Amino acid sequence: MSNESVGAAPQHPGEQHSGGIAQRLNWLRAGVLGANDGIVSVAAIAVGVAGVTTSTSAILTAGIAGLVGGAVSMALGEYVSVSSQSDSERALIEKERGELANMPDEELAELTGLYRAMGLSQETASQVALELTQHDALAAHLSAELRIDQADVVSPWHAALASALAFTIGAILPLLAILFPPPGWRVPVTFVVVLAALAFTGALGAYLGGSSRGKAALRVVIGGAVALGATYGIGHLLGATGLV
């Protein structure tokens, strides 16, 4: 047995054991979903306007308005949501830190009880709790009691910026698809490009989540097609009736 293997946790090919991997996967999935929202939202607005007029300036104005409004809305929503979550987690961390400082013996007994509840014997649970407490008492209690990792407490600003960026990246695609082709090809090209992009983001999100890529791609493609068809149909109907 080599020296490197002594005391090291065995790893299977393709497995990640470094800290924060779950958090990074969550961020990637959130980014994919944000891009997906940008694609569908702006594409629906653009084809809706295209159903009324072939004016490039009108389509561009509506598309940019949808992009900016959607990105700001996504950022604000993510900021508020993550702020609440991070404030709660930080409060729990401070509470646990105070309990460890004021009643360390009770906290050690509590940690031992948690490991007993997981199926360890009294002797083993006591030893594990003692060694983890000596190494990093706060981290041990946060992990066992609250399932919190201090390194994974997310910044609301980072979350807001990431959400806005993902939405913007997704929104740019349908804008380019509808603005560059000739007027007669704008809507068909946009449909094809958007549905292909949705199939990709759906499959990628499923891959990151470990679920069926085919089913996920089909769901988002059907949803996107319904959204595009509905907004184009409404725009075309309003244009045909002279209401706009």
Task: Describe the protein's architecture and organization.
The protein has 244 residues and is an all-alpha fold. The protein has one domain (22-236). 79% of the residues lie in helices and 0% in strands. It is built from 7 helices and no strands. It has helices at 21-50, 56-102, 104-117, 122-146, 156-179, 186-209, 213-241.
Q: What structural class do you assign from the helix and strand content?
A: mainly alpha
Low-confidence stretches: 1-19
* Largest beta-sheet details: none
The helix content, as a percent range, equals: over 70%
- Counting structural domains, the number is 1
Oligomer: single chain
| Average pLDDT, all residues | 82
Report the portion of residues in β strands: under 5%
Q: What shape does the CA trace take? A: elongated
- The total of helices stands at 7
Radius of gyration from CA coordinates: 26 Å
* Strands, count: 0
Termini separation (Å)? 78 Å
Taken in chain order, the helices and strands follow as HHHHHHH
